[in-house]
């Protein structure tokens, strides 16, 4: 691929230097039967995976200046299935924890969280009252990964009497 403007989701040089040996070793263990080395650099594959993860776009809607879905998803699925993604995550997590130790952070703070109260009726056929609670809680980790979850409490009609 030709030079392109970097996306905010692109892997910094420092982190690429950390995971490149892992991906090079993986690629050496998974050589193509035909001997083909691949059309795209491993760094661009990682950048495409990070772009999809960060933006939430569909794989087929990756920008044209990143590797296509066929190449990107192949590596994503292979690394997910054999645990390479967890190995990479652990390397990056250790790097962040070490950096936090040097700068006096304990690494437990979340840069920001957002929550929103909500009330929703029960689904048809369910018994009890309405669902009350908090939903749409999200936080961005220091690696730039977005984490979301929903928590709710159920108030039964009998408990309100």
UniProtKB/TrEMBL annotation:
Pfam families: DUF4096. Residues 11-89 form the Insertion element IS402-like domain. Residues 102-137 are annotated as: Disordered. It comes from the Bacteria. This is Transposase. It comes from Streptomyces luteogriseus. The lineage of its organism: Bacteria, Bacillati, Actinomycetota, Actinomycetes, Kitasatosporales.
């Amino acid at each position: 691929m030709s030079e392109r403007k970097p996306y905010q989701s692109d892997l910094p040089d420092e982190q690429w230097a950390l995971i490149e040996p892992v991906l090079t070793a993986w690629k050496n263990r998974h050589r193509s039967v035909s001997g083909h080395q691949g059309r795209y650099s491993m760094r661009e594959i990682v950048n495409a995976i990070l772009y999809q993860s960060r933006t939430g776009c569909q794989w087929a809607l990756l920008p044209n200046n990143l590797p296509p879905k066929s190449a990107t998803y192949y590596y994503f699925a292979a690394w997910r299935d054999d645990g390479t993604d967890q190995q990479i995550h652990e390397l990056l997590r250790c790097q962040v924890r070490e950096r936090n130790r040097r700068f006096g952070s304990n690494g437990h703070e979340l840069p920001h969280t957002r929550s929103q109260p909500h009330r929703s009726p029960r689904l048809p056929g369910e018994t009890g009252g309405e669902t009350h609670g908090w939903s749409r809680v999200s936080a961005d980790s220091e690696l730039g990964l977005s984490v979301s979850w929903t928590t709710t409490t159920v108030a039964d009609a009998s408990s309100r009497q």
